[in-house]
Amino acid sequence: MANKLYPDAKAALDGLLFDGMTIMSGGFGLCGIPEKLIAALRDSGVTGLTCISNNAGVDGFGLGLLLETRQIARMISSYVGENKEFERQYLSGELSLEFNPQGTLAERIRAGGAGIPGFYTKTGVGTLVAEGKEHKEFGGETYILETGLVADLSIVKAWKADPYGNLVFRKTARNFNPMMATAGKVTVVEVEELVPAGSLDPDHVHTPGVFVQRLFVGQDYEKRIEQRTVRERESA
Predict the structure, then answer these.
(1) Is 42 inside a domain boundary?
(2) Which helix (H) or strand (E) holds 67?
(3) Which has the least CB within 10 A, 87, 111, 149, 236?
């Protein structure tokens, strides 16, 4: 087995980055995002990035860090409503956006990882999403052609991993991370807990290690919440 373990995010990204590259970044909202790898990308100074991610983080955290430093040139996303800097850059023409229905984005990533170059879907027919795309009828219904997505690099956050790179995700963090791990030409994973080889039940592995090239153990995760909402305490 080739050694997949690296000491930290900077080391795990060494030799992989170049200007203008396409990067998939896992997670859902701020849950399960690769916090340490995003910070390492910022510190690397790589620019002109196309980022494929369900969302764009928030101001000052997640992919919002790369927006603040103007390292992202283009986003392929489905939900971008939590980031004022994203809004400012997009409306001023500084940032390009390819907007996707959320299910379409998920399937485009899954298809890319499965080697499927395109698929037809009813989602978006008759809307701006369908403009310029091939239309075809199946069973009397109109569908549009969507293409699979593959990235130069996928950055993924997992809960547990063994040294082979077999991954287990926890709850909402399982959104987008597993499929992105399959759709990167190179996949780098940050994990909360590294367990001994053979200790993971094969039936519980979400992503097989064959898809993972590099991994490291992250420390001191913030795990922020986009909008913390609490109810008032009832009076005694």
Answers:
(1) yes
(2) helix 64-68
(3) 236
| Distance in angstroms (rounded) separating the CA atoms of residues 55 and 103 | 13
- The CATH number that applies at residue 102 is 3.40.1080.10
Distances (CA, A) of 217 to 53, 159, 181, 191, 195: 22, 10, 17, 5, 11
Vertex 75: Cα angle to 40 and 37 (nearest 5): 15
**Range of the structural domain that residue 163 is part of:** 9-217
Q: Are 149 and 108 in contact (CB under 8 A)?
A: yes
pLDDT digits (tens, 9 = 90+) for 94-140: 999 999 999 999 999 999 999 999 999 999 999 999 999 999 999 99
pTM of the model: 0.92
**DSSP 8-state secondary structure symbol assigned to residue 31:** B
Query: Closest by alpha carbon to 76, among 49, 107, 102, 98?
Result: 98
Across 152-159, average pLDDT:
98
Place 160 in a pLDDT band, splitting at 50, 70 and 90. Answer: very high
Measured between alpha carbons, how far is 185 from 17 in angstroms, rounded to an integer? Answer: 12
Residue 236 domain flag: no
Find out whether 193 and 160 touch, Cβ atoms under 8 Å: yes
Domain count, the chain: 1
Cβ atoms of 14 and 144 within 8 Å: the answer is no
